[in-house]
Specification:
alpha+beta
Length: 814
């Protein structure tokens, strides 16, 4: 058996060395088909499937409360002690993932950090590369402030110096002593954003001298062997309200406490760590792209199958002779399969390289939107298994079946036939493959056109506010620069007035969010005069006076916010929210309650603004609530400064940074124009349009090559017939018509098959497209037109060759 296998492989190598152009074409076609699938799947794997690099990650669960908007929210810190006593749980890790100011060697910069309970690393099974990790003694009041560096941060900022232990690093202006470095493989618990430094959660923003420090924490718990998440959920469900009630401090009262206690427990898998936006945003697009890339692979397999069948027709004489000399059909089929296996191996290696390059490009595109994004989309066993599975499918589609058909030859008839006119051009399998390619290519072109049309629609979609000539500066307090109460109001008032006096600045405002970047979670909104009415959901943000004016959002009724303090909290509502809350009349002067925070339990509506898509340009939810920033000035320490100007952007950026430096309380590490942010917010649609177009062009090229090859083979195998027809008086236009008719039948059949496929695919892509009709007639017509144009181009050369046949030469050869 081994000897036969060795012979078959040597035979296959010699066969491809005799036809290098054919081999390279087939390998590249396979590489593009499999590589497209590998690139999308490896990114999908990194975002959705890849577990944390910790000990036994599938025994980790995330425990939290379920909010009405479907989000998992953190739990009170004291509740973690109750979870540690649970007999079903082996270990508990409480954490927060803030972006903190790090001061190192005199320079201050923002960096992702982890605030952890002392048992986190032990629960996860993480070890130290040098030094030690957090210990129980680090959570004791008055204990020294200690920090653990990530391996990457230690390598980049300290050049991997082992003498880093005992050195001091400042976090939010407070000194922390470095006690250890985590192992190289651990990149934190938050997907996409690895921490630079970890420190005890009890030291985050609290006074270490206090007997106890209250905090909220996300929770990852390790289950004991044999315990399922369902068992933990069932046990906690009956006592969750009691656990929450005993964990909340007395300052949580009335409606706020009641709302927290009403939230049920949620226990989900923690194997993949924490994520706040990436998975929800890219799960559906990546799944759609994976389905589209599967069509590309199918088109590639059909193309290579056509090539293999054409090569089999050219070798029918050789195969017939071998059959006549006693060769078994199975042996010949096996040798032909060996040739396909070599193609697959070459395509497999090229696909891995191509997929890696594509993933690198995709991650670079993502990093333009997400600052400091890091995702490991490299090869692992799942990606290799998926790529190998794709290669196996390709082998079955273009290797086994064509090889078996090529070996099915009547040797006597083949040897008796001296002509090349062996009806190869009418081979039904090849015709069916070409029509299938045309149908699938039509689907790919439709998908690309839908994605492009979606991107175009979103760019034209009115946002309800202007983005031109508006800069947004993200404000971060300097270490020790957080202000409270009257001091915060005085500082922010002075800052806003100074910025408005910068030459070229037309207006300026403050807010607690970055339009088109921050995704606020909707919360409950109730009418105080009608508590029995259905509860609505809306998003809200704190803004200063002048915010609507700066972004050119018209105020339809009422007035803007005032800076003077007032016991009555105020709000401005969007037009849609006002209509939903008070369908019977004006909303001005009415009172509402938003969420459960003390500051928003009684809000008087002082204005109604026109609807604006401030958080998501594709969003259909237009209910929005503007809250008065001056009534919660602490929120202005972290937030954004919007500046409308007519001066050059660089000049305004420099002036804003200078004003912040003069103030001495805040700095900005990022200033973007709203126009640029609008483009960044369309990242999902840009990726879909770019990849969809790439797949469509690739499928179109493969279909054109397949059609060209079949028509060329059609002409080549019927040269004798064409010569005879011309000798008997047939005109060249009639000969041309033979080829054109063949092309028309192939393409027309493909279009007829593709139309219903396009309809169902269009319905399936409904969740990924925006502003597209349920039946995209224009896109269907566009796809058909592009396909017919390419098909006509692919037909030109075969038609010319057919019309140029010399009947004398053709008959002499016959």
């Amino acid at each position: 058996m081994l000897e036969d296998l060795s012979f078959d492989l040597r035979y296959a190598i010699r066969a491809w060395l005799r036809a290098p152009a054919f081999a390279v074409t087939a390998i590249l076609t396979i590489a593009f088909g499999i590589g497209a699938n590998t690139a999308i799947f490896s990114l999908l794997d990194a975002l959705l499937l890849r577990p944390l690099p910790v000990q036994d990650p599938y025994r980790l669960v995330r425990i939290g409360s379920l909010e009405g908007n479907g989000m998992t929210v953190p739990v009170p810190g004291p509740l973690l002690d109750d979870l540690r006593k649970d007999p079903l749980i082996e270990g508990v890790c409480g954490l927060q993932t803030p972006v903190s100011n790090i001061t190192l060697k005199g320079a201050t910069f923002p960096a992702g950090t982890h605030a952890l309970t002392s048992d986190c690393y032990r629960t996860l099974g993480i070890h130290a590369a040098i030094g030690r990790l957090l210990a129980a003694s680090d959570d004791i009041p008055n204990s020294p402030r200690v920090a653990v560096l990530s391996f990457a941060f230690w390598r980049d900022k300290f050049a991997g110096n082992p003498n880093v232990l005992g050195q001091t690093i400042r976090i939010e202006g407070e000194p922390f002593t470095i006690v250890g470095v985590t192992e190289p493989g651990f990149r934190g618990l938050l997907l996409g954003f690895p921490p630079s430094v970890s420190f005890p959660i009890s030291k985050m923003g609290g006074d270490p001298s206090r007997a106890s420090v209250f905090y909220w924490a996300d929770v990852l718990a390790r289950l004991k062997p044999g315990v399922s998440p369902q068992m933990v959920r069932a046990k906690l469900a009956s006592e969750w309200r009691r656990l929450l009630d005993s964990s909340l401090p007395a300052r949580f009262r009335d409606a706020q406490r009641a709302e927290i206690l009403s939230q049920p427990v949620l226990v989900t898998s923690g194997a993949n760590g924490l994520d706040y936006s990436l998975r929800n945003r890219f799960r559906q697009p990546l799944a759609g792209l994976l389905a589209i890339s599967a069509l590309v692979l199918l088109v590639a397999c059909m193309n290579v199958a056509n090539l293999v069948l054409a090569r089999g027709m050219e070798r029918r004489r050789e195969i017939a002779v071998r059959l006549a000399l006693g060769a078994k059909r199975g042996r010949i089929a096996r040798q032909l399969i060996a040739e396909s296996v070599l193609l697959i191996l070459g395509g497999f290696g090229a696909a891995l390289l191509l997929g890696s390059v594509c993933d690198h490009l995709l991650l670079n595109a993502l990093s333009m939107f997400y600052t400091d994004l890091w995702i490991d989309a490299g090869l692992n066993l799942r990606v290799l298994a998926f790529t190998a599975g794709s290669a196996l499918v390709a082998l079955l589609l273009f290797g086994v079946l064509p090889a078996w058909q090529s070996s099915d030859i009547d040797s006597a008839a083949a040897l008796k036939t001296a002509s090349r006119s062996v009806s190869g051009g009418r081979a039904p399998t090849r015709r069916l493959l070409i029509s299938g390619q045309v149908a699938l290519t039509m689907v790919l072109i439709l998908g690309a056109s839908l994605f492009i049309e979606t991107l175009r629609n979103l760019r034209r979609e009115p946002l309800g506010f202007e983005t031109h000539a508006i800069l947004d500066a993200q404000l971060t307090p300097l270490p020790g620069g957080v202000l409270k109460g009257p001091a915060a109001s005085a500082y922010l008032t002075l800052l806003l007035d100074r910025v408005r006096k910068i030459p070229g600045v037309d207006d300026a405002s403050l807010s607690t969010f970055f339009p088109l970047l921050t995704l606020p979670y909707p919360e409950d909104v109730r009418r105080l005069d009608a508590p029995d009415r259905p509860v609505l959901q809306a998003s809200a943000q704190f803004v200063s006076d002048g915010f609507l004016r700066t972004l050119r959002i018209p105020l339809l009724e009422g007035r803007d916010f005032r800076r003077t303090g007032d016991s009555q909290k105020t709000a401005i509502v969007s037009q849609t929210l006002a209509r939903r809350l008070f369908p019977e009349g004006s909303a001005l002067g009415r009172h509402i309650r938003f969420g459960s925070e003390t500051e928003t339990l009684n809000l008087e509506i002082v204005g109604v603004a026109r609807d604006a898509r401030l958080d998501d340009p594709r969003g259909k939810q237009l209910s929005f609530l503007y809250l008065n920033l001056w009534e919660r000035p602490l929120g202005g320490n972290w937030g954004n400064l919007q500046v409308r100007s007519s001066a050059p952007e660089a000049q305004v950026v420099a002036a804003v940074r200078a004003e912040l430096q003069k103030g001495g309380h805040q700095y900005t590490f990022q200033i973007r124009s709203l126009a640029a942010q609008h483009e960044r917010s369309l990242l999902q649609e840009k990726l879909l349009a770019a990849l969809g177009t790439s797949f469509g062009v690739l499928g179109l090229a493969l279909a054109a090559v397949g059609l060209f090859g079949l028509l060329s083979f059609f002409v080549a195998t019927r040269q004798g017939e064409i010569g005879l027809r011309m000798a008997l008086g047939a005109e060249r236009r009639y000969i041309c018509w033979l080829v054109i008719r063949e092309a028309g039948i192939l393409v027309g059949t493909g279009v007829l098959i593709g139309l219903p496929l396009c309809y169902f695919v269009g319905r399936g892509l409904a969740g990924l497209v925006h502003g597209i009709a349920p039946v995209p007639v224009v896109s269907l017509l566009f796809s058909s037109a592009i396909l017919l144009l390419v098909a006509a181009t692919a037909t030109l050369v075969p038609v010319y060759r057919a019309s140029s046949v010399d009947p004398v030469i053709a008959l002499r050869h016959e």
